[in-house]
Design goal:
Layout: H1 6-16, H2 31-62, H3 67-74, H4 78-85, H5 99-114, E1 119-120, H6 122-129, H7 135-142, H8 147-155, E2 170-171, H9 173-188, H10 196-206, H11 210-218
Parallel strand pairs: 1-2
Length: about 230
């Protein structure tokens, strides 16, 4: 794989913003318009680079690497790497969740503890969402995807770990992205609390991770789902 060089990126900016160039080349191009597009492209590249690093941080955590070791690999302190990848966020608070999602989170935590995992992965979240009847299971049924089929598939992918830190379990980057998508969906639907169907859509739209793989295999396509919540 050959990475793009500066000339490649400049050419891409020109391609995306061809209207910034004056007809006939007699005048100066619209440099501010080109700068705007260049900044957008740089942001997309940075986001992709961040996703690349987060992906490997997640795998390191899942396979037992300490925050100290991960920080050393990234050339930063343990505190710095924890702040970036393991920072608490208000959206994980029970006050931001419906009663059904709070109950699902109980099952999420139980699945992680039972399997001695020191992380909350997308697989734990999907398992928790499909244990009891809620807006997520109803959304699956609307999409002709049996919740029990999803739960059985997730169960085969929950691996046994060796963690004893049952009370301090980190959310993986994909899980944090899923809850962020869920929060945004809830807000778009006029709710100040995240419901189970919001998190289900979030897990599907992350596009990577165990939950996304399971949902794709089961035939759940969030792009075809009505954005309106299914209700309690």
């Amino acid at each position: 794989m050959t990475l793009p060089d500066l000339d490649d990126l400049i050419a891409e900016v020109d391609r995306r913003c061809d209207t910034a160039h004056r007809p006939g080349g007699q005048e100066q191009p619209d440099w501010l318009a080109l700068l705007t597009v260049a900044a957008q492209l740089a942001g997309q590249i940075q986001a992709l680079a961040d996703d690349l690093v987060e992906d490997y941080v997640e795998h390191c955590r899942m396979h037992g690497s300490s925050w100290t070791d991960i920080g050393a690999a990234l050339g930063v302190t343990r505190q710095a790497v924890q702040q970036r990848f393991h920072a608490p966020h208000k959206r994980y608070s029970p006050e931001t969740m419906t009663d059904d999602l709070r109950q699902a989170m109980v099952h999420v935590k139980q699945a992680a503890v039972h399997h001695r995992n020191n992380y909350i992965g997308t697989e734990h979240l999907l398992w928790g969402l499909t244990v009891e009847d809620n807006s997520a299971t109803r959304l699956l049924q609307t999409a002709n995807v049996p919740p029990e089929t999803v739960r059985r598939s997730v169960a085969t992918r929950l691996s046994m770990g060796a963690s004893q830190a049952a009370e301090r379990i980190a959310w993986t980057p994909y899980s944090r992205k899923a809850i962020a998508i869920a929060e945004a969906r809830a807000e778009r639907n006029g709710s100040d609390r995240i419901d189970c169907d919001d998190l289900l859509v979030g897990l599907a739209q992350v596009g990577r991770g165990v939950a996304a793989d399971v949902l794709v295999e089961a035939g759940f396509d969030s792009a075809t789902i009505d954005a309106t919540p299914t209700g309690a």
